Amino acid sequence: MSTEQGRLTPTSSTADRVCALATPPATAPTTDHAAVWLDDEGGVWADYPTVPSADDVLPMVWHDESPIARGDLEKRGHTLTRIAHCRTELLSPYGAPSADGAAEYAAVWLDDAGTVWADYPTDSEEGRVLPLVWGREEAEPRSELEELGYEFTLIGWSF
């Protein structure tokens, strides 16, 4: 990835996998914020708070509820900022979404309350999203994942 005017631009080796759209601050706005990461395979991860502090992360998946239209969230006063694109197959704890399994990528959104959302591919023209939640109970140290070859890009901060 190369950086151009605050944006991350895919290099030839990553263009077919992931494109982060903004460079967030390198440090958390407050101690209540958790880092949101995108790995080089297109998966979304979030810091898992531990005491004492560590670099534990968990993969994020769609929450098991009905998708909501982005426009409805905005009508409720939420401001959504697109922070990345990720692979849809990595967001579902149950495999590819049944509504539109052909959608390979989904936009990842961060709202003004710190909730992380991802597009849920549907046949309708109305953009629908689902909140992302931690995908499992057991966290892994990000540093150990990096030693295994994962490459993480900071894409935002959540609460």
From TrEMBL:
Protein name: Uncharacterized protein
Gene source species: Streptomyces antimycoticus
Lineage, highest ranks first: Bacteria, Bacillati, Actinomycetota, Actinomycetes, Kitasatosporales
Superkingdom of source: Bacteria
